[in-house]
Amino acid sequence: MTILSFFTRASRAFNGYPSSSKLLLLCTLSLSGGGVVAYSEAQVDASKTSVQVNEKDCKKKRVVVLGTGWAGISFLKDLDVSAYDVQVVSPRNYFAFTPLLPSVTCGTVEARSIVEPVRNIIKKRNGEIQFWEAECMKIDAANKKLLCRYTVENNLVGNDEFSLEYDYLVIAVGAQVNTFNTPGVLENCHFLKEVEDAQKIRSTVIDCFEKAVLPGLSEEERRINLHFVIVGGGPTGVEFAAELHDFVQEDLVNLYPSVKDMVKITVIQSGDHILNMFDERISSFAEQKFQRDGIEVQTGSRVISVSDKEITMKLKAKGEICSVPHGLVVWSTGVETRPFVKDFMGQIGQANRRVLATDEWLRVKGCEDVYALGDCATINQRKVMEDIAAIFKAADKDNSGFLTVEEFKDVIDDILERYPQVEHYLKSKHLRDVTDLMKDSEGNDIDEVDIEGFKLALCQADSQVKNLPATAQVAAQQGAYLSKCFNRKSKWKDNPEGPRRFRGSGRHQFHPFQYKHLGQFAPLGGEQAAAELPGDWVSVGRSTQWLWYSVYASKQVSWRTRVLVVSDWTRRFIFGRDSSRI
Asked: 275 with 282: CB under 8 angstroms?
């Protein structure tokens, strides 16, 4: 009997036995004969397994995530994908470490060093996440459907459009550059929002220098070509100006010595100071640093138009209008909502808003089972004065019409969690506890307070409601928070963990999102940086730059990008930046 015929009969004989029994038999044969045996499970069993898996997947709720930025990737990394059918839609098949985009514009860091393919990230989740490289064109909120389109231009066959149904939708698409409808901006300005933007800027900077050294140009023409204008004095604009100055002074002046004294960098800011969202000490340090470096800062100037040759602006102090020739303009003035999100807002009654509104649990207002994170949304914090009567009634257990200190203490934790502006108000007034608000008109402690006194104590708290900044830090924390909520949906459905419902009974299912500010950096060039750290700490100088290196290296999404970024920094220290235009 041949070996082949033996295994054929053995397969038929053991067809009714479980796989473990068959494996045991084959292992025994292999050990006794010293050979290697390859075994293939019966096709019938494989199909049964496939059917069982498909039936199991069908029972899962489908979660569709739009976007692969900070919010989307943070959500996917922590989500329990075994509990959901997870699908991701994004026009970019990578995650980009956007805080390093200014470094990419000058070759300090290479573009591929700060991006991680999305499929690499989801591969670590055992392949239980499906990714579609496409752009969402429309959200059908009524039918819970998405219309998507493959937007890469090529001659490949097949339909570019498809639709997806969802049970839960997570919108994390970020935002687009806000031009404020300024004429000529889209046609004549560079932006710094995506990796492709940084690569275009890098090529254009080299083009400006190559054009400036050509024979036959006048000195005025050379100066115009080497005038770099940055519109916007926020973190991105300031960091790019600092990176460009270092690139010019450390590398390009050695390669283009004939025009080294003709380079000019100008930062145009509509406000009174650059980095006005930072501490005043940092803003002042940055302005002084730029003045020493020869970077011109024009504050109180509003750009009214941009042409291919000139940028026109209005000086607020004098009311004058002036035009300045340029070689390159980088527009970095803020963000606005993407078109398909605006269309979605119109469907759910938010057409009059500028940004998609969510509640404190990141749920989109006016649309069930839809969540929004990051730059595309803002949290509409509920005002404490809207619920002041309900809070008083819940705290007044004996219905006496007066609230004692002890009764107030029973609801303090729920008030602080549900209305975080109350805690901010206490800090602004340097008060240690909410009970410190229970004082009479002369500032003396009182044992109890009526409804009018209670309103008076908290009436100023809502003035501390502030929108969260559109930063990577906020988006990442929101993504991590929402994934925890999804992971505990079934667990906390019957045992809610959130604060008390002052309007109604019971408690909220989850704790509301609370942002924890971990500090922010502003690299200023010349191996110097400024940092605003928790606890009202401010740090500036070279030591802060090294802190910036360590934090940004540690925050990379993978060890691959971490090694690449650190190696790029090392290469720049040894060999300088690459000026090739490729």
From this structure: yes
| pLDDT over threshold 50, residue 35 | no
Decide which of 527 and 441 is more confident.
527
The torsion defined by the Cα of 334, 340, 343 and 348, in degrees rounded to 10, comes to -90
- Ordered alpha helix ranges (H), 315-387: 339-347
Q: What is the 3-state secondary structure (H, E, C) of 451-495?
A: HHHHHHHHCCHHHHCCCCCCCHHHHHHHHHHHHHHHHCCCCCCCC
522 by DSSP, 3-state: which? strand
CA 326/CA 220 separation, integer angstroms: 11
pLDDT at position 65 is: 98
Residues 384, 419: contact at Cβ < 8 Å? Answer: yes
In terms of phi and psi (left: phi > 0; alpha: psi -120 to 50; beta: otherwise), the region of 144 is left
Say how far apart CA 169 and CA 326 lie, in whole Å: 45
- Give CA–CA dist 42/571, Å, rounded: 56
Check if the beta carbon of residue 348 is closer than 8 Å to that of residue 148: no
Please choose, from the candidates 17, 126, 132, 2, the residue with its C-alpha nearest in 3D space to the C-alpha of residue 64.
Answer: 132
List phi, psi (to 5°) of 63. -110, 120
Which residues does 175 contact at the CB level (< 8 Å), separation at least 6?
335, 336, 337, 338, 375, 376, 470
Residue 360 near residue 379 (C-beta atoms within 8 A): yes
Q: Classify residue 363 by its DSSP letter.
A: B
Q: Among residues 355, 348, 360, 349, which one has the least CA distance to residue 375?
A: 355
What does the alpha-carbon distance between residue 420 and residue 468 come to, in Å, rounded to a whole number?
Answer: 13
Q: What domains are defined for the chain?
A: 59-178+334-381+467-491+498-516 (3.50.50.100), 190-333+519-575 (3.50.50.100), 393-463 (no CATH)
Answer yes or no: is pLDDT of 297 > 60.
yes
Dump the DSSP string for 432-444.
SSGGGG-B-TTS-
Q: What is the dihedral of CA 561, 230, 517, 408, to 10 degrees?
A: -150
Give the E-state strand segments of 359-419 in sequence order: 370-372, 377-379, 403-404
Give the total residue count for the chain: 582
Question: Hey, how many other C-beta atoms are within 10 angstroms of the C-beta on 246?
Answer: 22
What pLDDT does 493 receive?
76
Checking if the pLDDT of 581 tops 90, the result is no
Strand order in the sheet with 227-231: 190-191, 328-331, 227-231, 264-269, 296-299
Q: Residues 224, 227, 228, 230: is their CA dihedral positive or negative?
A: negative
State yes or no: pLDDT of 32 exceeds 80: no
Which of these, 546, 572, 553, lies nearest to 109 by C-alpha position? 572
